[in-house]
Amino acid sequence: MVKKFEELLSKIEISIVCLGLGLLIITVFAAAILRFFGIDMSISTDLAQLTFAWVSFIGADLAMRQNKHMGVDMLVNRFPVKLRNAIFLFNSLLMLAFLLFAVYYGVNLCIINAARKYNTLYISYSFATASCPVGCALMCLTVVKNIVTYVKNFVKNDYSSIEKGEIIA
Q1: Residue 168 falls in which region: left (phi positive, over 0), alpha (psi -120 to 50) or beta
Q2: Does 168 map to a domain?
Q3: The Tripartite ATP-independent periplasmic transporters DctQ component domain covers which part of the protein (predicted)?
């Protein structure tokens, strides 16, 4: 059940990021071409900002889910696998605390920005600021899954997931 939910969520995230990047590229490219001919496309700035916010946060969770975030692990990889698991667990707990902080204050930011409108899109600026709590909440799910795995590693005394590089903080 959890695996199917995770696969569905991953497919949805990939679709959103791909569509968002496509829209972002088309919008910015069209604005640059039209600006060359002296035609103002002021909507492109607001649309690009809105799209970039969502693509960034959803893409961050997608990267975290697939262990594609950049990291420097030269030192940590020299430690015994049990210590690495403890370091990854501690790191994940810190990430979870930060993400929960970002979700809480991101929701507050959405409420504050509810009355603020985009100049050209005529929608609330909360649509852009909502990308933060939504993206961070998705990352919370990913981090909690990793925390459960690290705790299971300690309980079972099986660190094969870390040795294979399947899961990294």
Answers
A1: beta
A2: no
A3: 24-151
- Please answer whether residues 133 and 110 qualify as being in contact, where contact means their C-beta atoms are separated by less than 8 angstroms: yes
Which residue intervals of the chain are DSSP H helices? 2-36, 43-65, 81-112, 126-129, 131-156, 160-163
How far is the CA of 23 from the CAs of 13, 74, 90, 98, 111, in angstroms?
A: 15, 38, 38, 30, 27
CA distance 164 to 161: 5
Range of the domain at 31: 2-70+77-163
* Tens of each residue's pLDDT in the chain, 169 residues: 788 999 999 999 999 999 999 999 999 999 999 988 888 888 888 999 999 999 999 999 999 988 887 777 788 888 899 999 999 999 999 999 999 999 999 999 999 988 888 888 889 989 999 999 999 999 999 999 999 999 999 999 888 878 776 666 5
Q: Residue 76: CB partners within 8 Å, gap ≥ 6?
A: 84, 87
Number of domains in the chain: 1
